[in-house]
Amino acid sequence: MKARKEITSDLRITAAVAVALLILITVFGSVGHAKETAAISGAGASFPYPIYAAWANKYHELTGVQLNYQSIGSGGGIAQIKAKTVNFGASDEPLKKEELDKLGLIQFPMVMGGVVPVVNIKGIEKGKLKLTPPVLIKILLGEIKKWNEEPIKAINPDLTLPDQPIVVVHRSDGSGTNWIFTSYLSAVSPEWKQKVGAGKSVPWPTGIGGKGNEGVSAFVQRTDGAIGYVEFAYALQNNLVYTQLQNKAGSFVQPTIETFKSAAANANWKDAQAFYIVLVEQPGKESWPIVGATYILFYKEQPDAAAAEHALKFFAWCYDKGEEMAAKLLYIPMPKNVVDLVKANWKSDVVSKGNHLWK
Fold first, then answer.
1. DSSP state of 290
2. Strand positions, DSSP E, 22-150
């Protein structure tokens, strides 16, 4: 009888071990090949969301580390990092060095991309409609009200433009894409600079507002006669009709990785304080005139060593292994010399509980 009880007890122990092993296999795939289950939290710009999502999915597949990123606009990202509710913030409008120092933050650029005007006009295909800076400004100020008005027809003699009201779609939230786009408008038009200006949020003279690049894309898609502006990956993903744009050299150019690279080629990152660069209206016959970098905001003093290290390892992987993925989504990877400068900043500036994370 005693032997039977011992056997029964042994069987129960064996069953418990088997269940435990089954749970481990289910969670980690196989015993001895467990991946990390850490999570990194970030919030901010919708401009880089397509590439951050692609990078995050691949990195999770390789390491088990998960990125939880809220695409809420640059203003929201800055607010959340200030409140210390996320491991990092993301903004397309870089902060000045004085503000970064005051907050105890560093910033570094992750990737560059182009902002493009997009339209919804019956019969008009991608890359066919041409816009000049003066015509674009008059449209956005509400002075040109229909698509068949003479200033638009004059630069598009080969297109049949409809007698259709123009509906301007702009960002309603505090947005780095807004900052990039309105910085360009202010650079090409003293009138715009005086009346509206540049910023994450501006007093739009006309139109309807959409939240995030996602919201602007959706409004343009479902509004006949609409014109808006989005990061190029959103135009591609949502099959939006983008325009040509006349650049500083007077050439009409299409938004492509080559025209984005041409605009970014002249950037002087080495001498830029805290990597602060504005890439609009750059010289060059092939340069797309509205390009911007998107930035990560990160505290110098990190109370959570593990989370900080996971975040920096993720960003390092994006720099070192994510170039091809970025290029496929028509983002411009950061040049190696810039990446080297960024990593040097991490080693010198980012500390956790008094110890350097990256030695």
1. B
2. 39-44, 66-71, 88-91, 105-120, 130-131
Q: What is the pLDDT of residues 85-132, one digit of tens each?
A: 999 999 999 999 999 999 999 999 999 999 999 999 999 999 999 999
Q: Do domains 39-113+291-356 and 114-262 have the same CATH topology?
A: yes
How many C-beta atoms surround the C-beta of residue 302 within 10 A?
A: 19
Residue pair 246/252 in contact (Cβ under 8 Å)? The answer is yes
Going from N- to C-terminal start, the domains of the chain cover: 39-113+291-356, 114-262
Which one, of 215, 182, 187, lies nearest residue 46 by Cα? 215
Which of these, 287, 246, 250, 285, lies nearest to 267 by C-alpha position? 287
Query: Scanning the structure block, which residue is given the tokens 């959103």?
Result: 234
How far apart are the C-alpha atoms of 95 and 109, rounded to whole Å?
A: 11
Query: 114-262 belongs to which homologous superfamily?
Result: Periplasmic binding protein-like II (3.40.190.10)
pTM of the predicted structure, to 2 decimals: 0.82
Q: Name residues of the chain where pLDDT drops below 70.
A: 1-37, 352-359
Closest CA to 295 of 44, 118, 120: 44
Domain 39-113+291-356 classified CATH 3.40.190.10? yes
CB proximity list for 255: less than 8 A, separation 6 or greater: 114, 116, 232, 235, 242, 245, 288, 330
